[in-house]
Design brief:
By secondary structure, this protein is of the alpha/beta class. The protein is 23% helix and 37% strand. A ten-stranded mixed β-sheet has the order 2-1-5-8-10-12-14-16-18-20, covered by helices on one side. Strands 3, 4, 6, 7, 9, 11, 13, 15, 17 and 19 form a ten-stranded mixed β-sheet that branches.
Length: 437
């Protein structure tokens, strides 16, 4: 049975086993009907021209794990940013792990999506925010139809969350192949601040497919700092759909670090619904073998006096493939917009591939917008100079690549995250750059 047919035939039994309010039930049903109509994306779609999911859709995935598996902290501690005190929302095979988690309801809600979807006290928030900015496309609709678990974060106005929040999704390999569909909802009130770190990690060599949807609402003058660490096993594939709506004077930054996984697709969408908004999108991709990473970004400037900054760096070795498709839309009313978009890539191997398509759609006339893309190889003159100064060729290449990516690292605000990413980069480049492992 094909995966689409398996999902559709499982829906009735799935719905019978969960408890959600009637509004959510209607949303699920509409989403399923949409997915049944459009199906999985194919390369015939312009947005998926360079990325095919066919290899990962052929697996016979287990869809609905029915129990929580226990794993010891020692087995997964290295995947936490354990140098900092943080709230933790941990899922094992899609199920919440209370043993590994640290949640709170004291001054704000850092808890579970399943609670928010079923508990009447959260009904008003769910009604106002759930599935309101997520697109009605194929994979987002699929996630909406089957979403039961994920992170629910609600920060009231004038509140600073003192500790970062870590969202971790582990897969143990108890099934021959596993498909997960986490759903996260993050609401940050007026003049509030929060830092969030998200990671998906397979603890097995069995195939894993994660179809994730995250909705983030930043109210007036809110500040959201979000980090995605993607360094999974090469048997794990990830489709990450993130939707961000910002109100006036808010700042939202999303850093995406893509080092592992088989096929990784990041759909990052920003919608600016006020003035004096700043949207920041940055990423580093370092892949090899036959890995494939696809970044699709959208920033929609709707009102005047706003900014957006995109800076994506890619390093591709062996037969790896990268895709960058970044779009900036500036509406007629969005005068005084300042939009910057840059994508720089280094092909270490002549068999590596990068497909880049930066786009601007500008309907206003008083704006400052720029975009650019570079694809090249390492500077041989600089490498020769370093060798003349006694630096071995391998270390010299690594230093040049690290310097190339460092402009993105400079804007990371959590020192422990910057240190962890620096170590991952050094390990990915295969050298010791003087960092403490």
């Amino acid at each position: 049975m094909e995966l689409q047919d398996k999902l559709l035939s499982s829906y009735v039994a799935f719905e019978n086993n969960i408890d959600v309010n009637s509004d959510v039930h209607e949303i699920r049903s509409e989403a399923l009907q949409n997915f049944e109509k459009v199906g999985f994306p194919t390369k015939k779609l312009e947005a998926w021209k360079y990325t095919s999911l066919n290899p990962v859709l052929k697996q016979d995935y287990s869809l609905f794990p029915n129990k929580v598996e226990a794993i010891e902290l020692a087995e997964v501690k290295k995947y936490f940013i354990h140098e900092i005190d943080a709230y933790k929302i941990v899922f094992i095979n899609g199920k919440y792990s209370s043993f590994l988690s640290q949640t709170t309801h004291e001054h704000y809600d850092v808890c579970l999506m399943s609670s928010a979807l079923t508990n009447p006290k959260y009904k008003a928030v769910i009604y106002k925010y759930f599935n309101k900015i997520a697109k009605k496309d194929n994979l987002t609709s699929l996630n909406t139809a089957f979403a039961t678990e994920g992170a629910y974060i609600n920060i009231p106005k004038n509140t600073e969350v003192k500790k970062p929040i870590q969202i971790l999704n582990f897969t143990t390999g108890s099934q021959a192949a596993t498909m997960l569909q986490p759903r996260n909802l993050i609401v940050v009130g007026e003049n509030s601040q929060v830092q969030i770190i998200e990671r998906h990690q397979s603890l097995t060599e069995n195939p894993v497919l994660s179809n994730v949807v995250t909705e983030i609402y930043a109210d007036k003058a809110a500040n959201v700092d979000y980090y995605k660490i993607q360094n999974d096993a090469t048997t794990a594939s990830l489709v990450d759909n993130s939707y961000i709506e910002q109100q006036s004077n808010s700042v939202v930054s999303v850093h995406t670090f893509s080092f592992g996984g088989n096929i990784t697709r990041n759909n990052l969408n920003f919608y600016q619904k006020g003035q004096h908004i700043d949207s920041i999108l940055k990423g580093i991709t370092i892949i090899e073998g036959k890995q494939h990473v696809d970044h699709h970004t959208l920033v929609h400037h709707i009102e005047p006096n706003c900014e957006s900054h995109q800076d994506y760096k890619g390093i591709f070795d062996e037969r790896s493939t990268g895709v960058f498709n970044g779009k900036v839309i500036v509406e007629k009313e969005a005068q005084k917009t300042n939009a910057y978009q840059q994508n720089n890539n280094v092909l270490v191997s002549d068999k590596a591939t990068i497909n880049a398509k930066p786009q601007l759609e500008i309907f206003a006339d008083d704006v400052k917008c720029s975009h650019g893309c570079t694809i090249g190889q390492l500077d041989e003159d600089a490498l020769f100079y370093m060798q003349q100064r006694g630096i071995p060729k391998k270390e010299g290449k690594a230093l040049l690549m690290y310097a190339f990516a460092n402009t993105v690292l400079e804007s990371v605000k959590i020192p422990e995250v910057k240190q962890r990413i620096t170590k991952l980069i050094a390990k990915k480049l295969g050298v010791n750059l003087g960092f403490d492992f």
